[in-house]
Write a structure and sequence with these properties.
The chain is mainly α. The protein is built from 7 helices and no strands. It has one domain: Leucine-rich Repeat Variant (Alpha Horseshoe). It comes from Brugia malayi (Filarial nematode worm).
């Protein structure tokens, strides 16, 4: 799963493709969040994607991973800070809406 999905994410051309692939990642890693590790850079960059569904899936994947590995939250701090401080109010407010979940998952 990992290599194929990683390859498809690297070559995804549309928001629709990325949404579908991030949803597949979320669904296939629910029971085994450690499998998210190779996809962290895709998840981090999706925090500031213009597409809200992509951001939602990215936050869900990140929170799932952090919930099972709280010490890994540090790896999302920079990308999350960029989203919070983004010039787009929609992206900033969307990131802010996940703040309490990030704090809870990081403990």
């Amino acid at each position: 799963m990992s290599a194929s999905l990683l390859s498809r994410l690297e070559t995804a051309e549309t928001s629709c493709d990325r949404t579908m692939l991030l949803d597949e990642l979320r669904a296939t890693t629910v029971e085994s969040p450690d499998r998210i590790a190779p996809f962290m850079h895709f998840i981090q960059s999706a925090f500031t994607d213009l597409s809200r569904p992509i951001r939602i899936l990215a936050y869900q994947c990140a929170l799932n991973y952090i919930s099972s590995n709280p010490s890994m939250s540090v790896h999302f701090m920079s990308a999350y800070s960029v989203a919070l401080l983004h010039r787009s109010a929609d992206i900033s407010l969307h990131a802010l809406s996940f703040l309490s979940e990030f704090i809870t998952a990081s403990r």
